[in-house]
Amino acid sequence: MIEINQTLPSHTFNLLTNEGMTTPTTAELFANKKVVLFAVPGAFTPTCSASHLPGFVVHFDALKEKGVDSVICLSVNDAFVMKSWGDSANAENITMLADGDGAFTKALGLGMETGVFGGYRSQRYAMLVENQTVTQLWLEEPKAFTVSSAESVLANI
C-alpha cells in the first residue's frame, strides 16, 4: 500500500470532459500542484452519492482557500459513468477521474474485491498529494465513512 512520502505511480487515465475524451497522466494531474484525491467504491452508490462526493462539492471553495489546486474523485468505473455521475451531482469543480480497469488502484495497493457487488473496486480513502507525493492519507475502515469526508480532510490540512 502506498504510504506517506511516496510518489504516486505513473499512470494514464481516461477523463471525459465537455470537450470530449482526454488521457491525462499522473504527472499532468499532480506535478507542481497540491491536490486532494478521494476515492470511492463506486459511482452512484449510496454513501458515495449521498455524502462523499457532495461533501467535496460543498467544501471545494474552502479547500481552495487552504491552497488546494484541484480536487479529484477517483473510482474504478469508466469515464462515461464518472462524467454522468459528476454531472448529476453538480460537481463541475471536481475532476471525475476514471480508473476503468483498476490498474492505478492496484498500483496504490488500495483496492478490494467485492465479489458479486461489483468485482474489483477501490477502498474509500482521501489523500493530500503535493507535487506527486502523498503527504497525508486517510484510509477508511471497511464500511466506514469518517476520516475521508470533505469535512475531515478540510480540518486536517
UniProtKB/TrEMBL annotation:
| CDD domains according to UniProt | PRX5_like
Q: What GO terms are given for molecular function?
A: thioredoxin peroxidase activity
Q: Which residues form the active site?
A: 48
| Single GO biological process annotation from the record | cell redox homeostasis
Name listed for the protein in its UniProt record: Glutathione-dependent peroxiredoxin
Q: Which GO terms describe its cellular component?
A: cytoplasm
Q: Does the keyword Oxidoreductase apply?
A: yes
| Signal peptide (UniProt feature, chain positions) | none
Primary enzyme class: oxidoreductase
Record function comment: Thiol-specific peroxidase that catalyzes the reduction of hydrogen peroxide and organic hydroperoxides to water and alcohols, respectively. Plays a role in cell protection against oxidative stress by detoxifying peroxides.
Write down the species: Pseudoalteromonas piratica
Which InterPro entries does the UniProt entry name for this protein?
Answer: PRX5-like, Redoxin, Thioredoxin-like_sf, Thioredoxin_domain
- Which reaction is catalysed here? a hydroperoxide + 2 glutathione = an alcohol + glutathione disulfide + H2O
Chain ranges of the Thioredoxin domain = 2-157
Kindly state which keywords UniProt assigns to this record, in alphabetical order: Antioxidant, Oxidoreductase, Peroxidase, Redox-active center
Family statement drawn from the similarity comment of this UniProt entry: Belongs to the peroxiredoxin family. Prx5 subfamily.
- Stated EC number for the protein is 1.11.1.27
